[in-house]
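Submission sheet (multi-component)
Chains listed below:
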Amino acid sequence: MRRRRGRLRSRPIEDSSLTPLVDVTFLLIVFFVVVAHISSSERIPMPLARIENAETAPDKLQRRLVINVVPESQRGSLGGDYLVGVRTFGRSPEDLARLQDMLELREASQPGAAAVIRAERTERYDRVYPILEACRQSGVTDVRLVSEDLDG
Amino acid sequence: MAEAPAQPPPRPALIGVPIPRRRVIVGRRGITLAMAPMIDIVFLLLMYFLLVGEFLPPEGLFELDLPRPLEHARPAVAMTLEQPPVRIEVRSVGDGPRGYTISMTGPLPREIASYDQLYLALDASKGRLLTSDQAFIITPGAQTRWEHTLGVFNAVLRAGFERIRFAPPATQ
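Outcome: structure written.
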């Protein structure tokens, strides 16, 4: 009799529900999945140039625009030669003009923001140069060229 | 007839006094939080994302200051003669990272064997044959690999020169 009464009294404490905990856990999971997706779409995985004794600085830029020269193996799936955020551009003069317009808008809205150019180590120079030229034409003067950080 | 055992008389102090409820110790037996399944799922999710996730290696950034569009129109200061830019040509001649050739114009050795030799030649002539604000134009061929272009760029930077430009791709 005494034991039953004790159980009845402990019932409110048993109600400490796990639902908020599970909610928060899943919210965190969704958050990290979305953030990981955004960061991976900004930078295409590719073998970067390995330069010994490189005069590079670690990537700690706050304001930047990452321009990927899409590796040849991924051009079909990504549908373009250059990837900026989620937008792709081809090598045609029209596409390069669109890219230049985008860079000009970016420079106008965020003056001084760096353009970070990523290209595969085996990429041909004539595929990278149009990006350099587009940056110069659009007034972006702070350009960063990405290599693998052998010291990092 | 046997007499019933005598009951102990109630303690006089408790007569008429309400008995206080005993404090019930709850917790140890009543609450059973099933943590094991939740931990199982958390670890499964952790393993899933560790396997699915792509880990990018750390990246280093070369700094390149492109000329402003109006910089070419800057009037020259009177009585100063700027040295003509040193043009460095780089070509890829193989598939590997060491398959390249470097040649230069200007007062320095014309043929350069490696990035290190380029760096040493530039470093040795800084302040003597070349001023610290000497301009360089890197001229890769259209087919030159990007790593070879960056290698030359890095050698010039290492030597302490900052005025570096990239020329349009040259026909090889």
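Remark: The beta strands of chain A are 57-58, 64-69, 82-84, 87-89, 114-118, 142-148.
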